[in-house]
Amino acid sequence: HFDSQILKVRQAAITGLNFKIPIIENVAYSHDLREQVFEITSQVAVTKDNVALHIDGVLYIQVVDAMKASYGVEDFKSAVINLAQTTMRSEIGKLTLDKLFDERETLNKQIVQAIERDSHEWGIHCLRYEIKDIEPPSNI
User: Fold this and answer.
1) Backbone phi and psi for residue 19, each to the nearest 5 degrees, phi listed first
2) Is residue 115 within 8 Å of 84, Cβ to Cβ?
3) Strands 124-135, 36-46: parallel, antiparallel or unpaired by DSSP?
4) What is the average pLDDT across 30-54?
């Protein structure tokens, strides 16, 4: 009986002035819709010619659909960071060490395209990715 009264109150309040009852209702998700910056920590990536590099980067994203960001994935921040890390390792594995330094801009664009393709269902728009530092082994 109590639940049906709350439902009637909520239905009546939808079109007009809305109040939240603090004990019964709460805000489930809150998202910042501005551009967000995530630092991709240093990790080891192996090039096509088997050179292990330490590489890190910076990812710029924006939440474009708050509902998908809330319900499409458990934690969109960690999901997009992990996606960026795995995509970066995958794309670096396609290049040799010599080409990696020459095609840094192309590599950044390929990473953005891959993240954009996969994160669309999460309500995330990948604005850009920048490789911050590429550290080759000391013997090279």
Assistant:
1) -125, 145
2) yes
3) unpaired
4) 86
